[in-house]
Each structure stands twice: as structure tokens, then as C-alpha cells.
Amino acid sequence: MHLVLFFIFGGLCVAGALNLLLQHHPINSALSLIVVMTSLAVLYLLLGAEFLAAAQVIVYSGAIMVLFTFVIMLLNAGEEQRTHGSKAAYVVGFPGAAALLGILVYIFLKQRDHLGSARIGGYLVTTHDLSSVLFRDLLLPFEVTSVLILVAILGAVALARKEH
Amino acid sequence: MVPIAYYLVLSAILFSIGVAAFLIKRNIITVFMSIELMLNAVNLTFVAFAHHWHQVSGQIFVFFVMVVAAAEAAVGLAIIIALFRTRATLNVDQVDLMKL
After folding, report:
1. Is residue B99 part of a domain?
2. The complex's ipTM?
């Protein structure tokens, strides 16, 4: 059951990510990224991270991707132009990414027995566990991130404002 | 029962696709989206290791990554809007100089 769900949603993730890479229109890439993020939320649920699964849907596939699609529509972004200013990216890009993938997959599969396996409900983090750590031990970092968000709001408004 | 290694391999695949898209895509919005894809791949690694070690810290870290990603998306898209207003293009090859 767990393995079937993992392969369905992991496959959706990989398919969405490949679609992001292959599509030429940014709106298609954005929609396939939403598929990736929503499938990742299901994988978080399988790993027992229920709060993060909800936050992933609300923050990532909700807020951030709405922002992306909004900007794509606002700027009327069309088909990607193929320019030849970046031969190095093609020469280094695919082999570099493939080498990175090869090394990581080799290491992970070699250490497979040491890493153990995940069961549904094997380790469930409730919102209570998460909040007791977040608001007791990590209160200062939490407050700092709220200041960061405030600065980001001000920065976004200042940057996107029309200059006079 | 799914080996934790499978989750890590999946996140490695997603990260590599993100790297390839970052290097190959020429539209600045798509380049920005591939950064988000890489952040998501790393988040999956954090959650998988949190499950493996039975530690809450990994999930807390993912929470902070999400906050920073939201702030980054807001500021980055504002920069893209400002860029489009001055150059009228979204192609990264035409915005490789800091000055106009």
C-alpha cells in the first residue's frame, strides 16, 4: 500500500518536474510545478508530517504558485525565446546534472540497508509536538522569520512600485 | 514499507531536474521556478531524515525553508516586474548586464 502510493505520487513528481523542464511556455511550467508540489504534500503525509503537508499545499501550491501565475499573466509572458548565448549551459548543464544525480543515487542505494525503511504511522509528528518545539525552544528564530517576512513585504512593495 | 533511500533518490532526481532546468531555461520566471523545485527537493530530504531519526528538528527546518521561500518568491517576483518594466524582456541572455 505504502509502496504503491509512493510510486504513484513519486512518479507524478518526476513527471511534473520533467514537464517543467520540457515545456516552452512559462504558464505550462508553473502548472506542472503545482503538480510536483501537491504530490510532495502527499509524500509528506506518508512520512508522518501532517502539518507540513497542509503547509505545503497552502504555502507552496497555494500562495507561492498563485504569485507566479499572477506575475506570468501580468507580464504577458509568451513562448520562451531560444537564444544561443549560453553554449556552456548546454555543455555543462545536462552532464553536470546527470553526474550529480548519478553520484547521489549511488550513495543512497549503497547505504540503503543502514537507512532503514518508513512505515505509515511509524513516526507521526502532530501539530502539538511541532509547536511545543517551535514556540518553546526556537522562539527567537521564529520571531526573526516574522521580521524577515515583514522586510520582504516592504522590499516587494518598494521594488515593484512605479518610479516617479 | 518503503526504504528511506527511495525517498532520498526521489529528492535527488527532483534536485537534478531543478539544476538542469536552472541552467538550460532562458525565461527568467522559469529559472526562478526551478529554484523553487530545488528547495522542494531538499525539503523532502529533511522530512525523510526526520522520519528516520525520529526528530522534530528536520520538520522545523522545512518550516523555516518554506518561510524563506515565500519571502524570496515575493522579493524575486518584484525584481522581475521591475526588470520587465525597464527592459521589456524576460530573456536572461538580454539582462546579463547590471546597467542598462
Report:
1. no
2. 0.91
All three cell numbers of A90, joined, read: 548546454
> Is B54 domain-assigned?
yes
B20 → closest Cβ in A21, A71, A159:
A21
Measure in Å the smallest separation between the Cα of B98 and chain A Cα atoms: 16
Which chain B positions have a beta carbon within 8 Å of A76's beta carbon?
none
Q: Is residue B24 part of a domain?
A: yes
- Alpha-carbon gap: A89 to the closest alpha carbon of chain B (Å): 5
Q: Indicate whether B34 belongs to any domain.
A: yes
Q: What is chain A's mean pLDDT, rounded?
A: 89
The parent domain of residue B11 ranges over 4-94
Render pLDDT for B17-67 as a digit per residue (tens, 0 to 9): 999 999 888 889 999 999 999 999 999 999 999 999 988 999 999 999 999
A43 to A31, A38, B71, B74, B100: CA distances (angstroms): 19, 9, 24, 26, 45
What are the DSSP E strand ranges found in A2-160? 117-118
Q: Residue B35 is part of a domain; what is its CATH number?
A: 1.10.287.3510
A144: contact with B, CB 8 A cutoff? no
Torsion of CA B29, A22, A101, A5, to 10 degrees: 100
Give dist(CA A89, CA B24) in Å, integer. Answer: 6
Using an 8 Å CB-CB cutoff, list chain B residues near A131.
none
- Report the number of distinct structural domains present in chain B: 1
